[in-house]
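Let's sit down with a protein and look at its sequence and fold side by side. Once you have written the record down, we can walk along the chain together.
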Amino acid sequence: MTLNGNIMDSMSISAFLERFRQRAATPSASETDTVRKIVKALDALEPQRARFIAAFAYVLSRVARADMNISDAETRKMEQLVIGLSGLSEEQAILAVQIAKTQATLFGGTENFLVTDEFDKLATQEQKLSLLNCLFAVAAADESISSVEEREIRLIANELQLTHSDFIDARLAYRQYLSLLNDAGQ
């Protein structure tokens, strides 16, 4: 997702897809028709839409990885959210989420702000608020939102220029999963 040229080419969904196109020209025995079909379908997306979906998936990965562990439940939740947002097939959503998770793991420290800033530029206020709710849904996927995940969500909300009230409203819907509150009640 080379977002306005601000993000490294290694971060680019286009570069990822180009590697697959090059492999398709000289197919290896290990490459499957399924992967080629998925890449072709993702490549067929309008570029701005592809950037939006890629940025959305990446920001979800930021929260999932905040505690240095992306659980299977968080991965499944991200896939569901990407499908719901994009209308991609399950296979395409799995690929998009896997790319986002890999990129967040490899380049998170340097790319987090840049990708979130690009999402901020691409998204409407309503889409930003929807993402905020999705961030809490991903963090709660394993039935507990750690304080580290909550801090990452707050940081993202600030980067998206959302208000404190927006953050609190979204957080309120997931209060039963907040580990800080659960720990205090014991």
